[in-house]
Amino acid sequence: MRLMPASLLLILAACAGPETTPTAESPFNTKVDSLVADAMRDGKVPGLAITIVRNDSVIHSRGYGFANLEKQVPMTDSTPVVIGSTSKTFTAFALMQLQDEGKIALDSSVTRYVRIFGAPARGGDSATAREVTVSAPVDRRFGQQTIRHLLTNVGGIPSGFSGDPFDNPDTLPDALERIVRDDMLPRRLDFEPGKGYQYSNRGFSLASLVVQDASGLSFEQYLDDRMFGPLGMRHSTGYFWRVGNRSLGYREGLDGKPVAMPPALGREWTGSGMISSTSGDAGRLLMAMLNGGKSASGTAVISPASVAEILRPQQPAESELGGPTTYGLGWEVHDMGGIQVVMKGGSVISMGSLFLLIPSQKTGIAIVFNLVDYGKVQLMQNLVKALAGAPTAPYQNAPAPPPVAPGTHRLALAYAATLAGDYMTRAGLLRLTAAGDTLRGRYEGHNFTLEAISDTSFVMRSSLRDQEGTPWTIKKCGGTWCLWAGKDSNGVRLRG
Question: Which of 191, 300, 380, 411 pairs as cysteine with 437 (C-beta 3.0–4.6 A)?
Fold first, then answer.
């Protein structure tokens, strides 16, 4: 998700206004409906749902548009989507629950709790009782990582995904152990733990394994039993592959219309981005965060001290929403003008979510959607303004990107074959094949072609708006080949 600093200032200005407490009969709900209609008028997002909470009450919760555009299935506040990186807020919540119980310590080494490092088994369900292979990391600094390092993205673990979360989602019981043992331990850390910052999905997968091994329950079962049940989140689960009524995911086609596309999925990434939830359920999490860890029914699910620690700004960071920020535990914490605004965005490419907390006003907003359109951040801004009784702004549609000239360079046949192969990128596996002097590929669950501008520069051709025209670079790096999307170092070719 991208939200520029100027936009954050707009939100802050809105927060500083007078508070209102809408009721079910309040014009506020009509205002929200109008704001959503304005934001969805461009027809890009088939469906979204919004839940707004204040104090210990839900003041607005409704779905808009369609969960399945083709079958005209309405989107509701109980329609599950895969929420993306807002899943990290649940992982942090789970670990702080375990600290409350004395089962972990936030500043202790991860190796103290994870069985593949030799930690003792804690019993529990079949997912945690099986035998595991004890392994040693290539990088000895791995043992310096604490749980806090993982939750604040300072562990040095490389960012991104591995595997193929679009075409071949992994749902096997040992998925978490394998991603740590086979993907993380053979890699060197990007920096010494605590000595840098890098947003890391892998780091939160390792944090999920800590939850699993320290609790004696599979990560998914822990969420269902210890979080979703007590919080009353009846439509949420870590077992995303068991959800039969989930919304379809969509991406924007070149004609501006939604194209049904699967989300990125994989059990090894559940705690970093694959939890299935709804706006209504997310509102229950937000209420707990705003009310000292108590559920909507008044049950203490996590301690007030742990909630405060989660929301405490701890690490300077570059926001996923754009611009500088600080990171708490799984949340971005923005402090401007003395007002704290806590946010987290998430995307699995074809669906996602955006959560926002204003602790000083005990207000929270959860939005889930089935097409990722960064322009919809304007809707969040207007919702906060409406809550504050401030004037809202007309929704501004983003201009269509200019066309990109075709590549006319001819690759030598042997050279095109040399570039072919499997590349591991931040979004998972990218496959390139040579068809004569042309490179074709599959990325993010979709087929594309690369037109050559030179032997190292290419233009991506795709029927999807967010892929079409992307400049790519492929060139040698060390003993292998690397990909860049624009200036972003995006992938390394796998051996074999």
Answer: 411
